[in-house]
């Protein structure tokens, strides 16, 4: 099992550009999550999904969108990137309580 | 909503000493409390967790205690080693069956173990 994979590893965006962060898991987990981690800070939940076709907002959803068309994939969409979205983004999945994290995407918006 | 506070923000200990990190939470409905270790540039890794029906759990040099009445839980690392140096995060959620099991994280503790 590859576990949770994320692409790309790094990305630099200009202000106003858009992009999609990809997340895939091969553990058949129903629950999936997107977090952002600002330098020296904890993780903040952006969006989560309890199964294919079901998504909901977390603590910091503004500026982001998600979709969950399959169990395996949970892409995060940034529209009109802003410098405040410079962060490391982690995707995670879980079957029950324990969440498994992907390696992260380091995003810089300049 | 749930709020998790974590102290201290930094902790420096000598190799072989013990380290204790404390967290408090606000939502009495929370019943799942994991601890994650994150090395520089890496993903968070679960090191131990505890559920509300248990007061203490141990795994070799790591232990977690939970006081539901006071709404606080702590991570204890004994016989610290340089490889324990990392950022440690506590978190809380309503756990599986709580419809979402969303994790709310503390702000982290940077542990430095001096050789």
Alpha carbon gyration radius of chain A: 13 Å
Helix content of chain B: under 10%
- Termini separation of chain A (Å)? 36 Å
How many E-type strands of chain B? 11
Radius of gyration of chain B: 14 Å
- Major sheet summary line of chain B: 6 strands, mixed
Mean pLDDT across residues of chain A: 94
Stretches with pLDDT under 50, minimum 5 residues of chain A: none
Mean pLDDT figure of chain B: 92
Can you summarize the main beta sheet of chain A? 7 strands, mixed
Give the CA-based shape of chain B.
Answer: globular
Oligomeric form of this entry? heterodimer
Tally the helices of chain B.
Answer: 0
Instruction: Give helix and strand order of chain B, one letter per element, not per position.
Output: EEEEEEEEEEE
How much of the sequence of chain B is in beta strands?
over 45%
Distance between the termini of chain B: 41 Å
Which overall shape of chain A is indicated by the principal axes computed on the Cα atoms? Answer: globular
Helix content of chain A: under 10%
Description:
Chain A is mainly beta and 110 residues long. Chain A contains no helices and 11 strands. Chain A has strands spanning 4-7, 10-13, 19-25, 31-37, 43-51, 54-57, 64-66, 76-78, 87-94, 99-101, 105-109. In chain A, strands 2, 4, 5, 6, 9, 10 and 11 form a 7-stranded mixed sheet that branches. In chain A, a hairpin with a 2-residue loop joins strand 5 and strand 6 (54-57). The radius of gyration of chain A is 13 Å and the shape is globular. The model of chain A has no long low-confidence stretch (mean pLDDT 94). Chain B is mostly beta strands and 115 residues long. Chain B contains no helices and 11 strands. Chain B has strands spanning 4-7, 10-14, 19-25, 32-38, 45-51, 56-59, 62-67, 72-77, 86-92, 104-105, 109-114. In chain B, a hairpin with a 2-residue loop joins strand 6 and strand 7 (62-67). The N and C termini of chain B lie far apart (41 Å). The model of chain B has no long low-confidence stretch (mean pLDDT 92). Chain A binds chain B through residues 31, 33, 40-45, 48, 50, 56, 58-59, 90, 94, 96-99, 101-104, and chain B through 1, 6, 32, 34, 42-46, 49, 51, 89, 93, 95-96, 99-108.
């Amino acid at each position: 099992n590859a576990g949770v994979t994320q692409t790309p590893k790094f990305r630099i965006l200009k202000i106003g550009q858009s992009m999609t962060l990809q997340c895939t898991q091969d553990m058949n987990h129903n629950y999936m999550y997107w977090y952002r981690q600002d330098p020296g800070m904890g993780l903040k939940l952006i969006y989560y999904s309890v199964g294919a076709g079901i998504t909901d907002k977390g603590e910091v959803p503004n500026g982001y969108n998600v979709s969950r068309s399959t169990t395996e994939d949970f892409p995060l969409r940034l529209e009109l990137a802003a410098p405040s979205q410079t962060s490391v983004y982690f995707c995670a999945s879980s079957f029950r309580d324990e969440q498994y994290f992907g390696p992260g995407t380091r995003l810089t918006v300049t | 909503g749930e709020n998790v506070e974590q102290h201290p923000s930094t902790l420096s200990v000598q190799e072989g000493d013990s380290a204790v990190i404390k967290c408090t939470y606000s939502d009495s409905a929370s019943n799942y409390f994991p601890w994650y270790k994150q090395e520089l540039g890496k993903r968070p890794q679960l090191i131990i967790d505890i559920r509300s029906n248990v007061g203490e759990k141990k795994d070799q040099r790591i232990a977690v205690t939970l006081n539901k009445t006071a709404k606080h839980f702590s991570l204890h690392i004994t016989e610290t080693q340089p490889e324990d140096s990392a950022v440690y995060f506590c978190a809380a959620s309503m756990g599986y069956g709580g419809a979402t099991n969303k994790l709310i994280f503390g702000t982290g503790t940077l542990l430095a173990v001096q050789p």
